[in-house]
């Protein structure tokens, strides 16, 4: 003992929880104190400005510059009270995180001094020189102009000394270069498509909102141990490491007692989130050791997604205060569960009806069933595209492995809804759908429970599951921006609702009653989903893979091939019809996805090569030298026939080292070849083969970890990474 690694581990183990002072008063008193929310608007804006801003937020009415100036003045006053010195337009480019470029509030006052200045113009629009953001070729660097524009639907907030203004990021030619722009377009599309259907049931409906409740999984690793793992630092995951003797097999981590250091971190994170108006609700230990989860109360999707991005930034900072590093990678450790970000999704009307919860009467239930069936049919139509929307180099480690959603998008509806669907199909159209067990129900009515108590009837293997009053899209990666998946889901549902409405109108034109017309139009869809996308069984089995292929579901598991879904005619048509992406935008974004895929694997392959050569092989040889010295001593003192085991191991080390060297050469060669491919799709395909070569180098390395003495091994081991907190 006594080597550096042991010292780091011991120090980490001894760390105590950082104290987090209790707040002065109940959270509800200061919730959202760093957000320019409606309460602040009322206090810092004059009534006319307030009204104009609210109209702009609620109805999308344009703000004129004179009003924007007044809004900015109110914001400035509020911000200065919080010690703000800088402003930034905060946006979500097509990278993993968010972007911000800070400007001070300083300006010359024209009298030889300086003042704090913040104008409507600076609030509404900026022109960051953002030529280095991925654009998939939309913006050649010589015409690097893009601009950010304020999204009033997402409130301005303060982070440290900076006033952050949530913005969209678009090219001067109008193409979206971010996640927020298309997300907002998809929200409009789904509302526009859903409203005419809702009005058949409730003429008061003017808008339909999409809601998102994200559940964020993550790992925590002690920062000192983390710093000794170049692979974690550079790629976000361990590229090597033998499984710990104990990992998650005892199921003793899930929902277990939270260690005090972690509890302090969580508390601190929640306080920071509350200040930002993020309604964090749950926190718990997840399945794998050192894996955790938190989730807010769901909210309007655009804001909920911004809040997810905000809290991820905050999380990294808060973790460091507590001596931890947060891992958002989908699969930081082999052999234990990876992390996802379940996206709980629903639609609701501005009159307060959740369209995925049973209604109060037969009419309401018919509306529920209409949205339920159309959503599943949309998922079926675009199952390959939905899978593409969550596909990435990092999420690929989760998909298709026996722990998370398989690489097939099917839907789980639960026993009750399964029965309801079968009954709807069998009984004559127009049969009332009533609340099950309700007194005075019509004879022969289809019963639907008011609340789904068999909510526990959860199928964890399903990527898209109905969970009582919402759908849960579980295949989203923990590091992903939720928008990628949500844009696709919103659009697919919008398109299907448009098609359904067109069919329904034909049926109504024939003079059928609404309930008969709706059911007549739904029946073929129900028959189709029951035989295709609906699957209640175990999604991990090989039989399901075969069965899914037979049903015509997409079973592709190679990421670049999955991504080709975006280039298909049906996909181009879908996004065009919904006004979400032009063909040019769609293609450009796919280029970005492919390029990101290539770069991530390229980085992993390089890190693997270097660590193998500079960390592992020297350690193995050092131990082998000790062994050889021992062998020679044994032979000298104990006789020639001694040390046969040690000789065997010394030979084994030579073999493994040779294997590593050869495989590192192979992967370097493969990279060189792949890099020459001009076509991004072909290059990505070549890199998907390179991704398969990384575990081949890992294997002999992990074998060496089992052989080399503990003191010589240079990298923190899984047992140290996963069990210290
Ligand atoms: P579980 O892990 O059991 O699925 P959690 O409580 O961890 O549940 O998270 C469920 C998430 O779903 C929360 O963010 C919750 O607010 C959200 N949610 C609940 N109802 C809806 C709804 N109608 N639409 C969208 N999200 C919802
Ligand atoms: Mg959960």
Q: How would you describe this protein?
A:
The structure is a single chain. With 725 residues, this protein is of the alpha+beta class. It folds into two domains: 31-178, Glutamine synthetase, N-terminal domain (Ubiquitin-like (UB roll)), CATH 3.10.20; 186-594, 2-Layer Sandwich (Creatine Kinase, Chain A, domain 2). 50% of the residues lie in helices and 13% in strands. Strands 10, 11, 12, 13, 14, 15, 16, 19 and 20 form a nine-stranded mixed beta sheet that branches. The protein is globular and about 100 Å long. Adenosine-5'-diphosphate is lined by residues 211, 213, 215, 282, 295-298, 344-346, 354, 469-470.
Helix count, per DSSP?
A: 23
The name of the CATH superfamily of the largest domain reads Glutamine synthetase/guanido kinase, catalytic domain
Poorly predicted regions are: none
- Give the termini separation: 22 Å
Structural domain tally:
2
Under the CATH scheme, which class of the largest domain?
A: Alpha Beta
* Annotated CATH architecture of the largest domain: 2-Layer Sandwich
Biggest sheet details = 9 strands, mixed
Helix content: 40-55%
Which word captures the global form?
globular
Proportion of beta-strand residues: 5-15%
pLDDT averaged over residues: 94
Bound molecules: adenosine-5'-diphosphate, magnesium ion
Number of strands: 20
**CATH structural fold name of the largest domain:** Creatine Kinase, Chain A, domain 2
Structural class, from helix and strand content?
Answer: alpha+beta
Q: Please give the radius of gyration in angstroms.
A: 28 Å
């Amino acid at each position: 003992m006594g080597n550096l690694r042991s010292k780091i581990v011991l120090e980490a183990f001894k760390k105590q929880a950082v104290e987090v002072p209790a707040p002065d008063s109940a959270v509800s008193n200061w919730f959202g104190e760093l957000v320019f929310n409606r309460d602040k608007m009322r206090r810092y804006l004059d009534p006319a400005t307030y009204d104009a801003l609210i109209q702009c937020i609620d109805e999308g009415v344009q703000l004129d510059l004179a009003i924007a100036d007044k809004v900015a003045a109110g914001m400035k006053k509020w911000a200065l009270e919080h010690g703000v010195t800088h402003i930034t337009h905060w946006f979500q480019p097509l990278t993993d995180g968010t972007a911000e470029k800070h400007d001070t509030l300083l300006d010359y006052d024209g009298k030889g001094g300086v003042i704090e200045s913040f104008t409507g113009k600076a609030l509404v629009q900026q022109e960051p020189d953002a030529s280095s953001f991925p654009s998939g070729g939309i913006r050649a660097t010589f015409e690097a102009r893009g601009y950010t524009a304020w999204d009033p639907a997402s409130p301005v907030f303060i982070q440290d000394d900076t006033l952050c203004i949530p913005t969209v990021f678009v090219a001067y030619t109008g193409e979206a270069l971010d996640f927020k722009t298309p997300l907002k377009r998809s929200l409009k599309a789904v509302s526009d498509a859903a409203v005419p259907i809702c009005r058949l049931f409730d003429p008061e409906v003017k808008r339909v909102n999409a809601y998102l409740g994200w559940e964020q999984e993550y790992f925590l690793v002690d920062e000192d141990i983390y710093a000794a793992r170049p692979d974690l630092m550079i790629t976000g995951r361990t590229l090597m490491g033998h499984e710990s003797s104990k990992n998650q097999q005892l199921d003793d981590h899930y929902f277990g007692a939270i260690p005090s250091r972690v509890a302090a971190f969580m508390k601190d994170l929640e306080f920071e989130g509350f200040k930002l108006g993020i309604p964090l609700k749950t926190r718990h230990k997840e399945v794998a050791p050192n894996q955790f989860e938190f989730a807010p109360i769901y909210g309007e999707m655009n804001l909920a997604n911004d809040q997810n991005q905000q809290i991820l930034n905050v999380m990294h900072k808060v973790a460091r205060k507590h001596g931890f590093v947060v891992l958002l990678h989908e699969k930081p450790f082999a052999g234990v569960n990876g992390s996802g970000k379940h996206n709980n999704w629903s639609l609701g009307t501005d009159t307060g009806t959740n369209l995925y919860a049973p209604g109060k009467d037969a009419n309401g239930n018919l509306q529920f069933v209409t949205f339920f069936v159309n959503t599943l049919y949309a998922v079926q139509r675009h199952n390959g595209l939905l899978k593409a929307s969550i596909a990435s180099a990092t999420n690929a480690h989760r998909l298709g492995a026996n722990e998370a959603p398989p690489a097939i998008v099917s839907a789980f509806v639960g026993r009750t809804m399964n029965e309801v669907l079968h009954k709807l199909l069998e009984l004559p159209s127009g049969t009332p759908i009533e609340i099950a067990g309700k007194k005075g129900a019509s004879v022969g009515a289809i019963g639907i429970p008011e609340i789904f108590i068999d909510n526990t009837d959860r199928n964890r293997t399903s990527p898209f599951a109905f969970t009582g009053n919402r759908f849960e899209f579980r295949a989203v990666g923990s590091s992903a921006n939720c928008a990628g998946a949500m844009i696709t889901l919103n659009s697919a549902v919008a398109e299907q609702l448009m098609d359904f409405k067109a069919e329904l109108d034909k049926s109504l034109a024939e003079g059928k009653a609404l309930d008969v017309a709706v059911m007549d139009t739904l029946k073929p869809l129900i028959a189709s989903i029951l035989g295709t996308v609906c699957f209640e069984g175990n999604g991990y089995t090989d039989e399901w893979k075969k069965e899914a292929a037979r049903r015509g579901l997409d079973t592709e598991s190679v990421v670049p091939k999955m991504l080709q879904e975006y280039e298909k005619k049906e996909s181009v048509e879908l996004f065009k019809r919904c006004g979400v992406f032009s063909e040019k935008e769609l293609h450009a974004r796919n280029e970005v996805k492919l390029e990101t895929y290539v770069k991530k694997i390229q980085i992993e392959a390089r890190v693997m090569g270097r660590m193998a050569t500079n960390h592992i092989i020297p350690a193995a040889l050092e131990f082998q030298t000790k062994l050889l010295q021992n062998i020679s001593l044994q032979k000298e003192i104990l006789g020639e026939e001694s040390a046969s085991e040690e000789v065997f191991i010394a030979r084994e080390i030579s073999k493994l080292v040779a294997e590593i060297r050869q495989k590192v050469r192979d992967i370097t060669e493969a990279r060189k070849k792949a890099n020459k491919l001009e076509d991004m799709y072909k290059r990505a395909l070549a890199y998907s083969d390179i991704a398969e070569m990384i575990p081949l180098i890992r294997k002999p390395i992990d074998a060496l970890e089992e052989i080399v003495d503990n003191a010589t091994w240079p990298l923190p081991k899984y047992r140290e990474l996963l069990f210290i907190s």
